[in-house]
Design goal:
globular; seven-stranded mixed β-sheet; binds adenosine-5'-diphosphate; 17 helices; Nucleotidyltransferase, domain 5; 37% helix; six-stranded mixed β-sheet; alpha+beta
Length: 505
Amino acid sequence: MSKYILSIDQGTTSSRAILFNKEAQIQGAEQQEFTQHFPNNGWVEHNPDDIWHSVLTTSRNVLSNNQISADDILAIGITNQRETTIVWNKKTGKPIYNAIVWQDRRTSDYCEQLASEELSQSINEKTGLLLDPYFSATKIRWILDNVENAQQQARNGELAFGTVDSYLLWHLTKGQVHRTDATNASRTMLFNIHTQQWDKALLELFDIPLSMLPQVMDSADEFGTTHSDIFGSPVRICAIAGDQQAALVGHACFEQGMAKSTYGTGCFLMLNTGDKALTSKNRLLTTVAYRLNGKPTYAIEGSIFMAGATMQWIVEGLKLLSHAGESESLVKDVPLDHGVFLVPSFTGLGAPYWDPNARGAILGLTRDSGISTIVAAALQSVGYQTKDLQKAMERDGLRPSVLRVDGGMVKNNWVLTFLSNILGAVVERPMLSETTSVGVAYLAGLQTGIYKSTEQLAEMWRCDRRFEPDMSVQQRNSLYDQWQHCVAQVRLTNENCKKTHNADH
Ligand code: ADP
């Protein structure tokens, strides 16, 4: 009897393969990093071969290191960095250009040229997204425009586009299958999230032939079977979901109103809105949370660019600490009203501001501000930015009933205590830290029938620690008012700097 589910977690900086038993306990894990390419200012690329080989190596190693054969694997689930765009030749399987990564800003000018009021609104209504280089559509356009003969090949039906999940599926099946799931499709800016179809008008607008696009499946579905050469004998591929959506599933946020927030390099907050695709008036995104048995469940999503990355800057840039883990004991006696604020808009501000030009600042310094105050301000900035997202959701009429958290930063109890206090909400940290991988293992388990329902999965979820707010409303409001004032000041300063700069030239 097959006993395990293999989760492939293909992330931005590394690929991981994790084996779960039927009780969703980890039986083995392998990880491999790969090279990031920055060929130009604001450009970020991966070599698709590196992505594929890191997935293949980690998957094979996790089996061999645990003396497990392909026959012991019940099914595979794939979760992946979202939006990253690969175009390859259908005959040879060879990519015609590197993978253009979600962070890549090369199509900013193109987006600005397109951005009429009417088009932005129509894109938002159909796809739930904002017209932005972040999503796949303009990246595909760039590849077709910049690789010799590509547009013609695309018209001839010779090329395939996929997000990373599709590219991996193609290789796992040796070119037999060109499919994706609804969560990944919903990040391309070509998919109508209401009709669950590729949108003809958007394909025409970006001049992308339908023949390039993968077939869109449920998140738990029969995606195909691995070619025997890959693991020795064929294995079913039964789940695909984008990484943030997989984390939502891994947190068992299946009820409308439940939210999760992942604190890694950046932060992604996602709130389940049930079968309604709500349109935000506050620049949050609407996306497919998961699709099961043909029925989409939707979510509202807000992202912050700098969460753990601010701590990386504190450690590697300022060298104030030797590693991020030291921060908790350093700040434990710092009073919360120390008056220093770090606005980490190093690369602009994400939701709900979407201000690409804002730059970072530390405000409120006095002679007694020391390293511990600055580190506390850095950690608190994550709480304040989450509060910005919470406020935007509230303005859209939404209030999370519970916030479940994961990612490297949530080991830090001081951060979660502050987060709960500044939000005025309960924050829950799960026992199992591999939320993204377990999410896609849950989906694969649903498809194979080892899990009967999402209700059963919700019962399996275990809390490690619950953080309840005990800050006075007055202190919460006062701190958050000061934060908002600091953000406004930073944005104003940047505006003024830009004006002076332009006047000087
Ligand atoms: P990613 O998956 O985006 O690479 P991880 O989820 O592995 O990120 O989280 C790593 C991030 O968490 C790093 O940016 C690091 O600075 C931060 N981090 C790790 N441990 C702590 C800690 N104890 N306190 C605060 N930040 C931490």
